[in-house]
Amino acid sequence: MSYVSEVYAELERKHANEAEFLEAVKRILESLQPIVDANEELYRRNALLERFVEPERIITFRVPWTDDKGVNHINLGYRVQFNSAIGPYKGGLRFHPSVTQSILKFLGMEQILKNSLTGLPIGGGKGGADFDPHGKSDAEVMRFCQSFMTELYKYIGKDVDVPAGDIGVGGREVAYMYGQYKRITNLYEGVLTGKGLSFGGSLARPEATGYGLIYIVDEMVRTAGRELAGKTVVISGSGNVAQYATEKAQQLGAKVVTLSDSDGYIYDPDGIRLDIVKEIKQVRRGRIREYLEAVPTAKYVEGERPWGIRCDIALPCATQNEINGTQAGQLIKNGCWCVAEGANMPSDAAAVDAFLAAKILYMPGKAANAGGVAVSALEMSQNSERLSWSFEEVDGKLREIMVNIYRNVSETAARYGYEGNFVVGANIAGFEKVSNAMIAQGLV
Ligand code: NDP
Ligand code: 2IT
């Protein structure tokens, strides 16, 4: 049995009930095969893969809180401190009813490689809770965030572990958690990123994941001799990543025709009016179907995802496994020639195989959505030096980081004989730095 298969079989035995995590590890290990083949003896001697697939630590805790009617609730909170070889644990917190340890381990594993790709000194972590912020009052969200932090604060710190947002965690939630951390510890430190501008947040952090996605798409498309301007773009989701991907795509002259939420998608052939979407999602915290109240010529399709709409470029920006093999085939058949992932692992294994087989431009999430965590790391730098950089400075660095990621991923793929396969390129390029650091630091 190959080293990769041995490690995977053992992991499957130990964590048989963690389907999402096992799937992520399987896909990553498969694409690391070329670098493992080249270094097998060294890796085995250092138990490298065995260590790489086990988190350094997982913290699980209960989160009690009281709703506005006085009813008590208990949710489950987690922090997966996966890998600190190249820096303090760094990664978002997700509040969504689907959150389990398996999902957070899969996201944490992705985060290790993504953070490495940014070129910045950040390790990999992820956390969250099975709490659903939808329909909760501000006071309920505040009480939940305070209770969550009352436990989490023991395990984090500016040089230890620095959480941020993810699905269901945006500026409001980060601010409530920051307030509680400060109150308990009496420390004013950059322990969370994505903070408000008046208390240590970075300009361009809200925009960073979506803008970064478009910067890498722009670079990839231009390298292929094409351009973004005038192209039709289909986007899923309508949260933080989807909104700012739409904004930057529009600024570069592309036409975005869809957005979605967990209820359905909107199709506006005239191009999405982002001001309306921001009002619905950021101010009213409403549903995407409300777009039709302002733009009656648009269409709303309940219970479906937008992959049947003809486009040049598709940008999944909602959640994992939102494109299956059949939907990928449909996109390709309709002429889509570029897919880049704003979300983490939105394409399932069959969809990825379809994109690679069709040889379209396909950039996986750990490279394409790394702009968010990259600017989080820039927020940490600003907090450490107690200075704030201008929007232009942060945005300029973000663009440079995304261009560098594209070049690194594409050169690494070519170096291992997989030209144009950015899945292999991203996984190996991310892994090279982490594995070197892990081996150098000895058996820890
Ligand atoms: P938000 O909570 O701001 O938005 C999430 C969007 O996706 C909403 O429109 C939501 O709809 C939709 N969505 C969530 N879960 C599902 C589901 N199970 N089925 C269908 N739609 C769903 O999150 P973000 O925009 O921050 O995150 C989106 C993706 O991007 C995630 O995969 C996240 O991990 C990834 N990401 C985020 C980064 C960041 O900086 N925020 C950085 C890198 C990656 P609804 O409101 O109906 O639930
Ligand atoms: O998936 C991700 O990269 C994020 N949710 C952002 C993490 C961060 O620390 O900014």
What gross morphology would you assign?
globular
Biggest β-sheet strands, sense, barrel: 7 strands, mixed
Strand order of the largest sheet: 9-8-7-6-10-11-12
How much beta, percentage-wise? 15-25%
Query: Roughly how much helix do the residues carry, as a percent range?
Result: 40-55%
CATH topology of the largest domain: Rossmann fold
Multimeric status of the protein: single chain
CATH second-level architecture of the largest domain: 3-Layer(aba) Sandwich
What's the number of structural domains? 2
Broad CATH class of the largest domain: Alpha Beta
Low-confidence stretches: none
Number of DSSP helices?
Answer: 16
Distance between termini?
26 Å
Classified in CATH, the superfamily of the largest domain is Leucine Dehydrogenase, chain A, domain 1
What structural category characterises the helix and strand content? alpha/beta
Q: What is shown here, in short?
A:
The chain is an alpha/beta fold and 444 residues long. The chain contains 16 helices and twelve strands. The chain has two domains: 3-187, Leucine Dehydrogenase, chain A, domain 1 (Rossmann fold, 3-Layer(aba) Sandwich); 208-363, NAD(P)-binding Rossmann-like Domain (Rossmann fold), CATH 3.40.50.720.
What does this entry look like structurally?
It is a single chain. With about 450 residues, the chain is an alpha/beta fold. The protein has 2 domains: about 5-185, Rossmann fold, CATH 3.40.50; about 210-365, NAD(P)-binding Rossmann-like Domain (Rossmann fold). The protein has 16 helices and 12 strands. It has a 7-stranded mixed β-sheet with strand order 9-8-7-6-10-11-12, with helices on both faces. Helix 8 links the parallel strand 6 (about 230-235) and strand 7 (about 255-260). The model has no long low-confidence stretch (mean pLDDT about 100). (2Z)-2-iminopentanedioic acid binds next to strand 3 and helix 14.
